[in-house]
Write a structure and sequence with these properties.
This protein is mainly α. It has 5 helices and no strands.
Amino acid sequence: MPATVVREGRLLYHSGEDGWNVEPVDKTVDTAQWMGKARSDLRSAEVLLTVDPPLVGNALYHCQQAAEKARKALLYWQDVPFHKTRKLEQLGVADDPELEQGRVALALAREVYDAVAQRLPPDAIGL
């Protein structure tokens, strides 16, 4: 909550007695952390598609996560508020996905990541 207060400039409640010391938010570092998490999910998807037998369903999940985290990095960088959500019905269900579906999903997730990375300064990508 303190980071949200600094980022959005709103404090919903504060008694003044708890001694909060809110540090300024380093948007570059926080954005780079989102991008790092996206890269980690991309790497996980790659590995899951190369094991024998491939774990395509798990790879698809990490592809979705990579794209979502890259998108959140961009929203965060642009000061667009977003909510963390885990609404499973929005993820859909993948019944016995084929390896080719995993490869396509990984390529799409990389495209999302690369498109976001092109819109951020190098320090905010965290490489």
